Amino acid sequence: MNGVIGVLVDIAKTPAFLVSLIALVGLLTQKKSGADTVKGTVKTFVGFLVLSAGAGVVSGSLEPFGGMFETAFNVKGVVPNNEAIVSMALQQFGTTTALVMFFGMAVNIVIARFSKMKHIFLTGHHTLYMACMYAVIFSVAGFKGASLVAVGALALGATMTLSPFILQPFMRKMTGGDSVGLGHFGGVGYWLAGTIGKLVRGKKEKVVTTEDVNFPKGLAFLRDSTVSIALTMMVIYVIVAIAAGPAYVAKNYPDEGNFIIFALTRAGQFAAGVYIILQGVRLILNEIVPAFKGISEKLVPEAIPALDCPIVFTFAPNAVLIGFFSSFVGGIVSMIAMGLLGTVVILPGVVPHFFCGATAGVFGNAEGGLKGSILGAFVQGILISFLPIFLMPVLGNLGFANSTFSDADFGIGGIFFGSLASHGAQMAVIGGLVVLYAIIVLYSVFAKKKKAA
Q1: Does residue 87 sit within a domain?
Q2: What is residue 120's three-state secondary structure?
Q3: How many helical (H) and strand (E) elements, i.e. helices and strands, does the chain have?
Q4: What's the total number of domains in the chain?
Q5: Domain residue limits at 370
Q6: DSSP H helices in 74-118
Q7: What is the spatial distance between Cα 293 and Cα 280, in angstroms, rounded to a whole number?
Q8: pLDDT by residue (tens digit) across 301-346?
Q9: Which residues have a Cβ under 8 Å from the Cβ of 340 and sit 6 or more positions away?
Q10: How far is 187 from 390, CA to CA, in rounded Å?
Q11: Domain presence at residue 453
């Protein structure tokens, strides 16, 4: 039994397998020809591998940047990183996490089938991370065995439903419909960025977006997002490399040669990674949306696939870079504020500020153009910097580790349930779940009445 669950969890946490399996089911339910079914399934599988490869290139290119930044400016503190904190937590909570993840995904599908909240969350690795965090928090609250799995699965299923649901109005504006949603646990941050975009837009009929920026004729080549991303990252990377000094690269990357060449190469790799991500996204959208039609028609009426955050990058490539830098600046401002306030110092993790900041930039741009992109991503950067301070105490012994969960929904969900657990233990946690499911039920009832009227 454990072996079967383990295989299912391995499939679920691997986006390429999970989403291609969903595409296969969708194509089969539509009774597509064998050739079309194979083509759609394989291209979806390859598309996610392309996207994952691009994300890996981006993460790898940014890895030295964080260390160089810390050395250059002599700062120490906690670095939010989902992968790092989960790898530590799984040593103790591995089995529980697997069970919470498996049953949480089932709860998400049941909610989508019987409620008016139709998103099916398909970002497997984020589902794993959230399952792990809930396993830790509810264990600290005193839940054990079957009750721990049940409570964790119900919390995870609700989170997988509500996070993409609150973002759908913004996704609808970007995509022109409900064919796809965003399944990434930075949802509260993206919602905040989009809302800020609305506020700064005001009543202007024409909003200057990040894609409308007019460059002088001699700099028209900067309209190519790959070129502008590469050149911008080269400037930033070289500045930080010079500030860190050649000794840092010589000590930590002895086979990389000259430190300036090293910085330029990593900056170029970053741009290459973003380009690969964009190609993977295009490939996925061309296949998964038509394939998912079969799921929505036959199994879960009106279901909306919620996919990983790079899915929005193609809608505003310039906002990706702007959002990243704005979010990172928000992290630096927050770090300085924490030092002055005497709290735990949360260092700006480059990877979460890229993926979350870039996505926030796209959401802010969709509503408020260039101003919305800058301000929305900046505030999102502050949010994901301060949330970990309040999350760490509810993680028990894991809270003393030199890392923590990074994206906004981890902070919101963890603080919500962790605070309930610390104030009223298990009954308070159950009460919190009742509130979440009451929201889902009440919305569904209201939506039905509104449609009938």
Answers
A1: yes
A2: strand
A3: 13, 5
A4: 1
A5: 3-446
A6: 82-114
A7: 20
A8: 888 999 988 899 989 988 988 999 999 999 999 999 998 898 888 8
A9: none
A10: 18
A11: no
